[in-house]
Amino acid sequence: MVQLSMNVQRTRTALLGALAVLAACKSEPAKKGPQSTPVRVAVAQRIDAPVNILASGVVEPMQTVAVTTQVTGTLLDVDFHEGDIVQKGQVLFHIDPRPLQATLDQVRATLARDQAQAEAGRKDDDRYKKLADMGYVSRSQSDQMHATAVAQAATVRADEAALRAAEVNLGFATVRAPISGRSGGLLVRQGNNVSPNGGPLVVINQISPVLVRFPVLAQDFSGLQRAVALGPVQVRAAAGDSVQANESGTLNFLDNAIDSLTGTVTGKAQFQNASRRMWPGELVFLTIQESVQHNVVAVPTTAIQTGQQGAYVYVVDNTMKATTRPVAPGLQVGELTVVQSGVNAGERIVTDGQSKLNPGSKVAIITNGDTSRARVAANSSDTSAGAGQANGEVAQGTNPAGNGLNPGANGGSGAPTRGGRAGSAAGAGGAAITGGQANTVLPPPIVRSGNGGATTPTSTTPNPAASTTPTTRPPTTTAAPATTTTTTTTTTTGRPPGAATTGSRPPTTGGRR
């Protein structure tokens, strides 16, 4: 009876082993092709690219006036504050007018006296002329009276001129702004005695509009000359820290000689500066638009790579393969670079992920996220049981005690995976998942011993810890788990190492105990 039971056990063990091998072969995943590399692309487009000349210049006021007094006197009042924006004709200073007023009165009196004398001389001249005609006086006496009358009339005209000068000087007692602009610091304070030779009272700079003086390189001079001849040349100015908004102006002056020491020509551009952001003496960076290249092909600057053979880009064709294309980059316009040759408008150019590409690589176009993270997400899938690596490595399970073949434990996990897929195994249910797919395996048979009461679970599934390739022959010997000292024989069990023993009877030695 015992011999019969052992023969039946061997037969069932061989049958179940064959079934396990067949299930493992069916669950073998198909080999995958090469992985697609996630990249970001942009379409080459046609644009109008401006040809710009870059230069740095210094802001200069359109006009600078040092306000001085034209009369001598005491400074009585200052009618503005330092740094104020003043308008042309606005009163700035008051000088003591009393000495000037006295001079004006004196000139007026002199003029009245000379006018009376001139009138008397004119009448005497008329009388002597009649007497000379009648022969009562000599002709020389008549001529002398005429000369006296003419001299007195000239004196009157001189007095009139002196009167106008006195009136002007009296007006100079009130100092007005000669131009509109921003006033500087006061150089002379109230109460000081001022004179025409005593220096300026204040300096006014006209800052709207303003000029920017900059050097033009000799190689750019001829192009600017042609541009100026065609029409106004647009110039944009930005502050040195690029914080202030750009100001737009026009080029209005090119010097008539090249400096032999620096090899440059002085140019000046005029800006309205309505917001008064540009300040005299400030360093600004200019962009001078010399011309415009129309309908040229441009690609994002980040798409252009540099290799041993020069610049190149990756072009994605209709088969989703990336091929290299040598290009000749030209002007840079913002985030785009003009490509003079090598790329046609409408072609898809790789802008991110080039470091992972080789000529002919398969690509997957993404629109959001990072290409490096997208690559990991495309090549691996994470499950609660275990995750396979993108390069096909075997992923270790989360439960070191489970090997995917645990007929006595409750859902141990950690079966080997292939091709980057996650694997898991069910213990008590008897289902094993290889490569992320479940294969139904018959539960191990229950072999009754000769005493009629003891049962021994057996397993025909090979030990995955020994090899990832299934075998058609059940194991001849099994090692004892780390937590028990019980040994087994080939006739009783094929339990893999580390399997739990909870809920099962102790192994038998094959026969009566």
What would the keywords be for this entry?
513 residues; five-stranded mixed beta barrel; 5 helices; rod-shaped; disordered C terminus
Can you characterise this structure?
The protein has helices at 2-27, 98-134, 139-171, 218-230, 371-379; strands at 37-43, 45-67, 73-78, 85-86, 91-95, 174-176, 181-183, 193-194, 202-217, 233-239, 247-254, 264-271, 283-300, 305-307, 310-316, 321-326, 329-333, 336-339, 348-352, 361-365, 431-434, 437-440, 446-448, 455-457. The protein is an alpha+beta fold. Strands 2-9-12-11-10-13 form a 6-stranded antiparallel barrel. Helix 2 packs antiparallel against helix 3. The protein is rod-shaped. It starts with a helix and ends in a 56-residue tail after the last strand.
Helix-strand sequence:
HEEEEEHHEEEEHEEEEEEEEEEEHEEEE
| SS-derived structural category | alpha+beta
The description of the largest β-sheet is: 6 strands, antiparallel, barrel
Percent range for helical residues?
Answer: 10-25%
- Shape from CA axes? rod-shaped
Kindly report how far apart the N and C termini lie. 15 Å
DSSP strand (E) fraction? Answer: 25-35%
| Alpha carbon gyration radius | 54 Å
